[in-house]
């Protein structure tokens, strides 16, 4: 093997093979089943695919000229501007869109996720290689592996909108300059570049933006402390000043435009309560808390955790044993190093220490409320424990600088063996077993049945009435049905829910439409014009796995315009057949046919020796019934069906014996 081939092999190993193995480990249930399964659950995963697909369709159609269309997708109908209640995924949709031009939504989502995880690794590895060029390549790869694929970050596979972390690499490079280089070298242009990278994060996710600002803010504090100590207050304008001003201004204006709807949302729902944010901040014990799915789980697991130690949302922040070993080695290196080069390591340790201290909550005592007032958007972040992701990434320079001193003279075979052993240890520290997943095939089957029923209906809006499943799953599948059919859904799933006791956990479509008719939505929200309520429908699955459509007032179980053929036609009532089922023509609504059902199941139009020979109206008190005669001449019998003319439901039947000829 020549030198060029060996160099190419090293590049492939460090930049492609190692992250590819890590990605395969992280997404094994999905990759090993050829997308028959998807991770981790049909909640936020499916929700994010909806947002990505909505953005793709908006920007690839004529709707691109109508911003209101983007911010008001047709879920939570008739409420408008609902996209600003959750993550917009604009940045992510650009990457997704390239794949979507070729693949279906689920394949495109998986491709986006694979590329995002690889970008994260490449970004951090490139940054720490620049920060510490003297560090062995194997250490750099190991550090990038255990930080970007840390269990703390991979926990967010359930919230994939948070995984676009690849802009952190350039921020780490600029943070390194802030705390290590001569303070005069950081010019006005450099401040603008740092601001541009931070603002660019807002194009992807508000959490990532705020927490990247948090890490950078700590670096700025140390930079200002160094300036004061050196009594150096000079600041130079630097190169390409106007270009940097233009880039920063454009990105800031773009983000301001994007977040105007979020400011309106803030007016509706208000800020997150401080108590809620404090409750969810990391606790000291959270950094040792993990699920038992890890090959090498943390010291504290769900069955051993105490409520007084750990409480709040998303507290599984254990970064992995490989990470802790590297951290321990870095601390020891910092203590025993006395040369000037170790100042950079100590400065970075100060950054991590302050990030930990300022983001920690101990019995609701925390400095975070003070820090959050400095960080734009921090007061709106409910799941404040997610700051752990950025702390993990900001630790990568600590490891890289410390690893400059981790050199042992070994012969090539021993060095190769040691390298594989180290990387193997890194993999063991991130390896999770029995990863949660759900059947995408089953989900697609339910989605198709629901979509087909809604498509063939005359519904102007629908509610998916679920049973035997989590509410968030039902709402997410209804949103995808809306996207597929173009018919608005009253269902919805998001970071906020409509005000006024909107029925998130109540499956009844009756309650959902009562909520609309009560005008609660109009009281709190900007809404669309309501359609004729007689065209509002309730969709539900049958025991056989198909879907049925019901009128929201009278539970009418039909919505076809006309049957394929008439079975019986008279002046009083008409019976038709379509798709193998019997339909009754609605005598009140033109061109509407009701599916005739017995015990909520359709009645087949192919009836063997039975034949419908009559249909007539029977007055009954203040109402009326349809009497349908179903006759079997060969056996000399007939049934008289009593059918509700508003629902198509068979209320009862009477057997009659025909007279012999």
Question: What keywords describe this structure?
Answer:
single chain; alpha+beta; 15 strands; four-stranded antiparallel sheet; elongated; 661 residues; 11% strand; 23 helices
Describe the structure in your own words:
The chain has 661 residues and is of the alpha+beta class. It is 47% helix and 11% strand. The protein is built from 23 helices and 15 strands. It has helices at 3-26, 28-32, 44-59, 67-71, 90-100, 105-131, 137-148, 151-154, 168-180, 188-201, 206-230, 241-269, 274-280, 321-336, 342-359, 368-374, 387-394, 396-402, 412-430, 440-455, 471-485, 509-517, 520-524; strands spanning 37-38, 438-439, 461-464, 536-541, 547-551, 565-569, 574-578, 581-585, 593-595, 597-598, 601-602, 611-620, 623-632, 637-643, 650-657. The strands form five sheets. The protein has a four-stranded antiparallel β-sheet with strand order 6-7-8-9, with no helix packed on it. The chain has a four-stranded antiparallel β-sheet with strand order 12-13-14-15, with no helix packed on it. Strand 13 (623-632) and strand 14 form a beta hairpin. Helix 6 crosses helix 18. The radius of gyration is 31 Å and the shape is elongated. The termini are far apart. The relative contact order is 0.10. Mean pLDDT is 89; it is low at 554-559.
Tally of DSSP helical segments: 23
Question: How far from one another are the termini?
Answer: 100 Å
Strand order of the largest sheet: 6-7-8-9
Give the overall form. Answer: elongated
The secondary-structure class comes to alpha+beta
Strand content: 5-15%
Q: Give the proportion of residues in helices.
A: 40-55%
What is the residue-averaged pLDDT?
A: 89
Low-pLDDT segments: 554-559
Q: What's the number of extended β-strand segments?
A: 15
Estimated radius of gyration: 31 Å
Main sheet?
4 strands, antiparallel
């Amino acid at each position: 093997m020549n030198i060029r081939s060996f160099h190419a092999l090293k590049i492939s190993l460090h930049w492609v093979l190692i992250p590819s193995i890590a990605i395969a480990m992280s997404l094994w249930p999905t990759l090993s089943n050829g997308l028959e399964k998807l991770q981790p659950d049909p909640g936020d995963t499916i929700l994010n695919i909806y947002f990505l697909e909505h953005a793709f369709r908006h920007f690839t159609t004529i709707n691109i000229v109508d911003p209101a269309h983007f911010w008001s997708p047709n879920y939570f109908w008739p409420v408008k501007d609902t996209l600003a209640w959750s993550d917009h995924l604009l940045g992510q949709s650009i990457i997704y869109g390239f794949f979507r031009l070729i693949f279906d939504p689920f394949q495109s989502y998986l491709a986006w996720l694979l590329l995002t995880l690889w970008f994260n690794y490449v970004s951090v590895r490139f940054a720490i290689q620049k920060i510490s060029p003297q560090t062995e390549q194997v250490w750099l790869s190991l550090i990038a592996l255990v930080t970007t694929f840390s269990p703390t970050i991979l926990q967010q596979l359930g919230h994939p909108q948070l995984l676009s972390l690849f802009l952190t690499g350039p921020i780490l490079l600029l943070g390194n300059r802030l705390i290590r280089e001569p303070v005069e070298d950081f010019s006005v242009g450099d401040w603008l570049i740092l601001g541009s990278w931070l603002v660019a994060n807002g194009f992807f996710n508000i959490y990532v933006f705020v927490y990247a600002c948090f890490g950078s803010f700590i670096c700025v504090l140390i930079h200002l402390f160094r300036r004061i100590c050196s009594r150096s207050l000079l600041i130079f304008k630097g190169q390409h000043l106007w270009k940097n001003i233009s880039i920063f201004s454009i990105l800031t204006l773009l983000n301001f435009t994007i977040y105007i709807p979020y400011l309106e949302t803030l007016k509706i729902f208000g800020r997150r309560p401080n108590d809620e944010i404090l409750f969810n901040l990391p606790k000291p014990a959270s950094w040792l808390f993990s699920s038992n799915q890890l090959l090498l789980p943390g010291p504290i697991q769900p069955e051993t955790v105490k409520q007084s130690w750990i409480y709040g949302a998303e507290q599984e922040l254990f970064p992995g044993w490989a990470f802790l070993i590297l951290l321990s080695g870095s601390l020891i290196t910092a203590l025993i190093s006395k040369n000037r080069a170790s100042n950079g390591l100590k400065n970075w340790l100060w950054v991590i220490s302050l990030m930990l201290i300022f983001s920690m909550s101990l019995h609701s005592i925390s400095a975070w409320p003070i820090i959050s007032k400095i960080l734009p958007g921090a007061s709106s972040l409910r799941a404040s424990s997610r700051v752990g992701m950025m702390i993990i990434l900001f630790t990568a320079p600590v490891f890289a600088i410390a690893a400059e001193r981790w050199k042992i003279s070994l012969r090539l075979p021993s060095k190769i063996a040691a390298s594989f052993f180290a990387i193997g240890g890194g993999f063991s520290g991130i390896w999770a077993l029995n990863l949660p997943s759900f059947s995408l095939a089953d989900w697609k089957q339910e989605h198709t049945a629901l979509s087909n029923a809604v498509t063939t209906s005359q519904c102007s809006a629908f509610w998916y009435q679920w049973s035997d499943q989590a509410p968030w799953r039902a709402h997410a599948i209804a949103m995808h049905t809306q996207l597929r059919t173009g018919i608005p859904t009253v269902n919805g799933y998001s970071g906020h829910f409509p005000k006024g006791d909107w029925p998130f956990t109540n499956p009844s479509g009756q309650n959902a439409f009562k909520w609309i008719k009560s005008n609660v939505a109009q009281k709190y929200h900007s809404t669309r014009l309501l359609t004729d309520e007689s065209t509002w429908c309730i969709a539900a699955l049958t025991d056989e796995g198909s879907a049925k459509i019901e009128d929201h007032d009278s539970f009418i179980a039909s919505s076809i315009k006309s049957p394929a053929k008439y079975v019986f036609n008279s002046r009083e009532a008409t019976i038709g057949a379509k798709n193998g089922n019997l339909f009754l023509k609605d005598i009140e609504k033109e061109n509407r046919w009701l599916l005739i059902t017995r015990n909520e199941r359709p009645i087949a139009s192919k009836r063997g020796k039975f034949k419908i020979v009559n249909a007539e109206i029977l007055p009954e008190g203040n109402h009326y019934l349809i009497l349908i005669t179903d006759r079997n001449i060969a056996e000399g019998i007939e049934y008289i069906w009593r059918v509700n003319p508003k629902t198509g439901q068979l209320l009862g039947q009477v057997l009659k014996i025909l007279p012999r000829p």
